[in-house]
Amino acid sequence: MKVGITGYGVYIPRYRIKVEEIARVWGGNAGTIKASLRIAEKAVPALDEDAATIAVEAARNALKRAQISAQKIGAIYVGSESHPYVVKPTATIVAAAIQATPDLTAADYEFACKAGTAGVQTCMGLVASGMIEYGLAIGADTAQGAPGDPLEYTAAAGGAAFVIGRDKLVASIEATYSYTTDTPDFWRREGQAYPRHGGRFTGLPAYFKHVYNASRGLMEQLGLEPKDFDYAVFHQPNGKFPRVVAKKLGFTSEQVEPGILVDRIGNTYSGSSLLGFAKVLDIAKPGDRILVTSFGSGAGSDSFAVVVEDAIEAKRDLAPGVEDFIAHKQYIDYATYVKLRKKIKV
Amino acid sequence: MSSIPRFWRNMKSRYNLIGKRCTRCGEIYFPPRNFCTNCRRRGELEEVQLSGRGEVVSYTVIRTPPEGFERQAPYVMALVKLDEGVMVTTQIVDVSPEEVEIGMRVESVFRKIQEDGEAGLIYYGFKFKPVKEE
Amino acid sequence: MKRVAVIGVGLTKFGELWETSFSQLFVEAGAMAINDAGIDGDDIDALYVGNMSGGRFVDQEHISCLIADHAGLTPIPATRVEAACASGGLAIRQGVMSILSGFHDVVVVGGVEKMTDVVTEKTTQTLATASDSEWEAFMGMTFPGLYALIARRHMHEYGTTREQLAMVAVKNHENALHNPYAQFHSRITVEDVLRSPLVADPLRLLDCSPITDGAACVVLASEEKAREFVDNPVYITGSGQASSTIALHDRKKITVTDATVNAAREAYARAKREPRDIQVAEVHDAFTIGEILAIEGLGFVEIGEGGRATEEGETAIGGRIPVNTSGGLKAKGHPVGATGVAQIVEVVLQLRGEAGKRQVDADVGLTHNVGGSGGTAVVHILEK
Q1: Over the stretch A200-241, which tens digit does the pLDDT of each residue have?
Q2: Catalytic pick from A83, A197, A210, A235?
Q3: C324 falls within a domain
Q4: Domain membership flag for residue C124
Q5: Are residues C153 and B58, on separate chains, in Cβ contact within 8 Å?
Q6: What is the ipTM score, two decimals?
């Protein structure tokens, strides 16, 4: 029996800050940055938003599309690298806020930007084995970049939630394959406010190696080629990496462009590939096949082959789409940004 | 606020807008109560899920915030009358103060209400944002 | 109801009284009232103290005991009464009832609040405990915020203007110029009010009563006993008190303080008086909109007409019904627990003809004291 996505939902905060604004303060050349990172602006959370509130909003939207009682959810996993608490799970806050308690298991995941897809895989296993009827996997982040660091241009906030089940599927998951190694490209120690990274080391040995090998490994497993897919969605730390890896793998820009949103909302970390996936689901037709490959520093990639089902037509409009959230925006300046992101010591 | 049990006891209402309805007189209470004020001992209260939709009855912009809300100031506080007829005191978000109007339609969202400093608990709950209705 | 006599009054200066402690304030006002009454400490049968929050302002509960002790009045029964900003008014009513019941003949009733021993944020936090702690204050609501919600709705429903609200403050500051005990002796204009910083839109700094230290005290006696001590008693002839919802969001209509309407109805009935009989009134203007709500709820003007009446000078000294000749809470100051008693002091001085340059011609007066955003109201009617 097929396992797949019974419902999906997203949330992107309203505030945006432009590359020009950050560059103005740090003396960067906005033109050069925009060209090399291929990003124009990023989403910034309000003072009263965090990974938990984003996860809840995305989960509530996913339930609107799933059309199931939250009481039937047997597991919730929230992946993030900005969980509000280091000890006390975001997953239980979500469970209470969607009224799924108390008959379920829950936990938080961390694997940099692929913690959300790790949750999807876990739910797939629990559902396929019959241990639970539905699972909920969420990737949500309010990522921070150190002031003045290149990451500051891209670290953004957003999240996506997926109800995994066996029936009323908007899309079925044909297979998943993961490629995981110990690669220290990007990390954050306990108690540190901002992550550190290996600069150019984050490219070939990290992002490209894992995304490429996971995607190729999945296609080989299924005996498929890039031309067998209608869309390819990759983790988006900037606008350049996913387009480069797509080309390397043999995907065309028609297949890749629809899933790209980093240029307008930034890198939402655990939400990144899942938001790109949701963006494609918002427009895909029944029968379309989608490749989704995430990347988490540390490092690993989860790759999925997804086939869109008929039910998507009826369910799509039950909750706001990714473009609705992208369009609903308000610009802020750098001073407001540092106040909101608590980079000012008070 | 730094009372764990007080917050935990109200979580259902704060997270999910669960109120109470008196089965005898039909009055809806939100925030929920244990005693129907009309029927008192003769009343019987059951839980009821509120829709989270309503309209602004009055609003203000708080510029001298209480402890814990300093960073958020200025923020919009309003009385919102829910479609079920009860009124709540709540913050209006995702809007600039100039855009708020009496009669504006709003719907509930999940946000942080306050937190007990850097090391204490985070208290989540409902706020409202404007909604364009067809 | 039978009349209860006010035979002595006293109060401290209202303001930021850095040198004076909580208990000193009460003792000072009390001694003045007892002198004024010409009684001896041994004549006092009981003590009632109105105080909102000794606990949060000066870390002191058990106020009744503290005051009786420091006043040298032990072992008489001493009782602390609390209903947020209506604590003083409630204490008066408790004193009145204790005399009318026949339990006591001579009773001292006072109110006291020491608000400046903590920083402003702590004061604001404490005042917010008069609102619904779980569902108003917890959400980020403040006291000025609650009254701002009422003001905006009142403007929306009745066309009350921003200028009319400002005129309440202007009038009360004008009156306070002639009150030596008032916190502020400064004339202000409507422009001053409209230019002052916003606190909670549409209310501005000069729409709000200040943070104040102070105490006020009266000596009450049964009508028979009063004649042993004074020949100019003023009588409390009516008393009314009512409760309402603690949260503004549970009120039936936020622009009408039903507690005021109900308390007034009882007071008028007991005194066998009507609103048009009142010739001077001290009402609860914690915020300028408060005075508008008061004169409407007390029946001095029609609901919705409060702004217009103020603008047309009906409530000024020399107007149809002079309101807050003392300067009101706005200009006289608002030491929360003391206010209700201070209002009685002012009306007594007016009825005695001892109000100096703010004197009006009055035989019948009224006091009106509110707790929170309208959860409690207490009204007294006084006559010569």
Answers
A1: 999 999 999 999 999 999 999 999 999 999 999 999 999 999
A2: A235
A3: yes
A4: no
A5: yes
A6: 0.94
